[in-house]
Amino acid sequence: AQSVTQLGSHVSVSEGALVLLRCNYSSSVPPYLFWYVQYPNQGLQLLLKYTSAATLVKGINGFEAEFKKSETSFHLTKPSAHMSDAAEYFCAVKEGNAGNMLTFGGGTRLMVKP
Amino acid sequence: EAEVAQSPRYKITEKSQAVAFWCDPISGHATLYWYRQILGQGPELLVQFQDESVVDDSQLPKDRFSAERLKGVDSTLKIQPAELGDSAMYLCASSLRTSTDTQYFGPGTRLTVL
Predict the structure, then answer these.
(1) Higher pLDDT residue, A50 or B2?
(2) Contact at 8 Å (CB) between B70 and B55?
(3) Which chain A positions have a beta carbon within 8 Å of B40's beta carbon?
(4) Phi, psi (5° rounding) for residue B90?
(5) Which residues contact B7 (CB under 8 A, 6 or more apart)?
(6) Mean per-residue pLDDT for A36-49?
(7) In degrees rounded to 5, what are phi and psi of residue B30?
(8) Which of B40, B48, B91 is nearest residue A99 as measured by Cβ atoms?
(9) What is the chain B residue with the closest CA to A49?
(10) Each residue of B81-111: pLDDT tens digit?
(11) Residue B109, class by beta-carbon neighbours within 10 Å (0-12 exposed, 13-18 middle, 19+ buried)?
């Protein structure tokens, strides 16, 4: 069975500082990995996804994530935080040989201080 | 840009009443998903359709929840009777067809049961 753990339910950074949101997964087969962002009272928007091509994945809004198989991690980073990045971020995993079922982590709320 | 549509956006009801949510996926998307997101948690899959057929409803509380996608296009999720613990965001998502396709989410329906 697949699962996702997001370390830190809340992360606070200053505007212009590095953003690092952590995600670790467990999967019995090579996974597909995703990061979604959710703004208040809205649905989820895809930031980026890993599907077994390049291990460093670039997404929208300057975000990127690196797949590290040895660490079973898929951490999300952005070099310089912007006030508009304040939102809830969800990491999700899908096993490659299963259906299309996504398993989500508990989410990390990112707060950006001026 | 095509989007997943959901209505209503907000619904307040009293316990024991019936509620229904509607979802219209992106045109041409064969796979449709209903998720429930409790406040402060990640979404959890309730039911997955492939065209008009249910692929996975293992997490759907079938004593009170039902879902249909009669013509393989739009879908309705019903709760009867609603309970206090059903208060949550109900998200609909769709994807093209294959297991590698990205899921696109609608804005959700926020349900409050009093």
Answers:
(1) A50
(2) no
(3) 9, 106-107
(4) -110, 115
(5) B21, B22, B109
(6) 90
(7) -85, -25
(8) B48
(9) B102
(10) 999 999 999 999 999 986 568 899 999 999 9
(11) buried
Of A34, A43, A90, the CB nearest to B106: A43
Cα distance between residue B18 and residue B26, in whole Å: 27
CB contact under 8 A, A107 and B103: no
Taking an 8 Å cut-off on Cβ atoms, the answer to whether A96 and B99 are in contact is: yes
pLDDT, one tens digit per residue, over A73-114 is 999 999 999 999 999 999 999 876 556 678 999 999 999 999
Which pLDDT band holds residue B2 (cuts at 50, 70, 90)?
confident
Pair of tokens at residue A73: 């991690």
Amino acid at A61: N
**Cβ-defined contact of A101 to B108 (cutoff 8 Å):** no
Please report, as a single letter, which amino acid is at residue A25: Y
- The residue of chain A with its CA nearest to that of B34 is A101
Closest A-chain CA to B39: A106
pLDDT at position B16:
96
How is the beta sheet containing B5-7 ordered, strand by strand? B5-7, B19-24, B75-79, B65-68
